[in-house]
Amino acid sequence: MAAERGTRIVVIGGGAAGMSAAASARRADSECGITVVERGPYVSSAHCGIPYYISGLLEDIRELTVYSPEYFERERRIRVMTHTRATMIEHSARRVIVRSVAQGNEESLGYDSLVLATGARPIVPSLEGADGLNVFTARNLEDAVKIRQYVDNNPAGTAVIVGGGWIGVIMGGALSSRGLEVVLLERTDSLLPGFDRSLSCACEEKLKEKGVKIRTGVSVTGLAKERSGLVSSVFFSGGAVKAGLVIMAAGVAPSSELFSAYGSKQKGAIEVNDLMKTGIEGIFACGDCATAYHVVAARQVYHPLGTTANRQGRVAGANAAGRYSLFGGIAGTQALKVFDLEMARTGLSSAEAAMYGFKAFDVLTTSPSRARYAPGGSLITTMITVEQATGRVLGAQMAGRESVAARIDAFVPIVSEGMTLQRAVELDMSYTPECSPLWDPVIYSLREALRRHTQEHR
Amino acid sequence: MAAERGTRIVVIGGGAAGMSAAASARRADSECGITVVERGPYVSSAHCGIPYYISGLLEDIRELTVYSPEYFERERRIRVMTHTRATMIEHSARRVIVRSVAQGNEESLGYDSLVLATGARPIVPSLEGADGLNVFTARNLEDAVKIRQYVDNNPAGTAVIVGGGWIGVIMGGALSSRGLEVVLLERTDSLLPGFDRSLSCACEEKLKEKGVKIRTGVSVTGLAKERSGLVSSVFFSGGAVKAGLVIMAAGVAPSSELFSAYGSKQKGAIEVNDLMKTGIEGIFACGDCATAYHVVAARQVYHPLGTTANRQGRVAGANAAGRYSLFGGIAGTQALKVFDLEMARTGLSSAEAAMYGFKAFDVLTTSPSRARYAPGGSLITTMITVEQATGRVLGAQMAGRESVAARIDAFVPIVSEGMTLQRAVELDMSYTPECSPLWDPVIYSLREALRRHTQEHR
Q: Are B141 and B64 in contact (CB under 8 A)?
């Protein structure tokens, strides 16, 4: 399959997944030809840092790109075509057609292996006024630059955020700490749909404490766009709110159009196996445009996340270059910090467990972060989801102020390895008074769950 | 075996293990008779809190007892005999002879099950002057009261600590933060023998930064005791140091004399199985006087620790009351905090791996605690010990300022379940910029170890 001067690899998308794939392919094969095609101006960007740029902690957006295109060209011999869009795959001829965004001129890139790392795009509800000049999404660095510019010029405005998921909540925190009045509108009855309501209410309280106004259970019905092109208010079921700035954070959808004519998809995401192979020989997909194997659900799911994109990119790149590399799957782990509140989860939530056919129960506990006599402790809320028949730990969620993201990591091997409560509760976890009570919230919650399981479910 | 009015259970020792055993026996059998025999005045004491009492953060020593003897008598119907010492087991007659420490009168307690939870005692080197009035050990609450009294009366003195293990280091920190000049003398060439030197040096630096003077590689040869009965200086190989107060922290040895005539021992500790049974039917042992099964070393070891004492006590108590309960073993996990430095470990160190016959290698990494662009991060040093042939993770040690104890807990299931690097590195750990970089030190160190293993050992 390799061309005379080595394998030709084309990567579509210069985000986390694409650049990880390109770098990984280079490590796997020092001779292969690698081309990355990226629509925007940046590659290798750290989207998770956008709130720091918005809130003013970072001054230069380039601090959110790990490496520049020049770096990849010079140090890794990877050709990077920015401002370039892939328009069509001609797989029978093993080539992809790309077009310069500015000039419009087309080029045909031949490949032996094609890696699709086209990412995801924000879902913008088709509402009257959604094209207003002060309506933004918060997906990539270009978005961040626009929002920051707007905020710098209008430092005392009102920001209306449509959507109370991860991005909505984090942007709400960033804009609020920047001094703006923030109104968060969420369609469902609680923020952070990945969390149980008994945990997400901690996030709601924290945001309210910092002055963010939250309206849950409301649908946005339209935006009042003035002649200036600016939106002045947002209408929702039951009211209206003035808006100087609107952030659309209603979730993302995989950007997988390029692959439309080819393999199978799940919720629009390109279905892959553990080698990141699509159904088409020679075409790989990774990151936010692709599915990922969930080790607890034991199936391919769509759960786009930066860490997954990086990990899948590595695997796709190595395999594209002829190596054999396996993706170890995801466990549904996520963490976020809103002001001083950390929220983290891994495995399946109660709702997900039901969706995947598990008969499960939840145990909710609240326990201290430190020994009773050690100063400065706080409470941590933990919910554990357990398979009823077996006692297997399917998932855990935590909210609190101290080491919650780090604590959830102790649950990651527990849920990934399919450990039962009986086994997990006997793990020899660390103890030192200023960092945990004798029974850390991790063990405390497992003990309580085991007690409940023993009493009620056997 | 049960007497007419229920099983008679006698527990020797009212520390963490003994009181856990008694409470667990009560939960298992609401009718059995339970007597706890304790030499000192306190039961259910939290030794780990002693530094907080010494440093002045706690005013009342009773804050370090979880429950009073009266609580156990009243709420759990457990007879608690404080100031009482067990002097002999007459197992053929199923009775134990106890003697009141104050009055000297003896009593014979019949039992069906006997639980030995006699703990450990500090090793005091047999040195000239070691009986000085200002020479203390730091094992129990009585010790803590004496030290605190001395320090309250002599707030500007010099404390010499003999031994740079866990207790020596923690007491050094507490006395230093109390304003005393502290000199720490350690026989080996580094503090905290359970850690590799490349990590324990962080502890040494932290203590020095806070003004503690450290001399490693020195043997204490004697103490100059004045006519007043007070020691005025401590002599060691290569010098002498003035002392207002001396703390002997040269390690502990199991208090197992009572059992001398009976079953087998290891390093003086009573050998038990996973049911906490000794070799003698009807006699159980738990806590600091007993061995514990090490899940990585796959054998019984002596590794006394508060969490283990609690866990083993529960198991011993349940089994003593006729239930069937199994101890899940230890993984060698330990954590401590000295000023703002956290140090934690789990599994086997390099030296322990060699001792238990593993052919292993270590990988040392230093990596950031947060994303590059998130404010306030610091460096975490991690050492992973890996079995050469299999790539199995045998142990991990960490030192740093942020969530190190919590981070080591993510390694606990990894080493306990015998996961390989290849498998562990694929765990879907959490990521959020203010709590970790994209690759948290846990994953970063595993990745580096895997890279090394792939390059050098296969």
A: yes
